[in-house]
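Notes from the 1:1 (GR / supervisor)

We went over the backlog. Supervisor wanted to see one worked example end to end before approving the batch request, so GR pasted a single chain during the call. The sequence is below; no edits were made to it. Supervisor asked that the structure be written out right there so they could see what the output format looks like.
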Amino acid sequence: MRKGSAIIITDNKPGYKKYILLFLFFLALDQVSKFAIRNLFTKTDVQTIPVIGNFFRLTFVENRGAVFGIDPNLGNLTNIILLILHIIAIIIIIYLFIKNKHALPRFSFTLILSGAFGNLIDRLFFGKVTDFLDVDFFDFIIDRWYVFNIADSCIVVGVILLIIYYLFVETSAKEEEILEKE
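Structure output shown during the call:
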């Protein structure tokens, strides 16, 4: 391997056990945290609890819409449409997971899948998603970021890792393959 070349970690172990365990861990973390938040805020009239001043708060939000609070205001049809989109996305993610043999994309798909299932469970059982993490990013883009949950975090981190992989790691490996063929 040449200096500066990328190393792609291939997932040589034939089973999916570690990914199933990671999936279950993040799914459980999401569901337990949402359960705790729903119980905490039903016992109080307060909707926001400061954790680190105004920078990080627990804020109870029931999101009937989509990402970033987008709600097309279609009543129950909104939930049905979002459920169908969740299921389609989950099927695609499982397909991409199985198709890919590298560890980083598989880990990324596992994160995304656990987040998608976490929010799907909320929609199926409650008709809305419980959000509670409320962070202020110092007026970076907007005054205050949208309230989110652990499932949302898993999805965002998984997508960021995929972008890094496909932009830098896989591209670098393909360039090296081309150079080796010459």
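Supervisor's comment: The helical segments are 17-42, 76-99, 103-126, 150-181.
Batch request approved.
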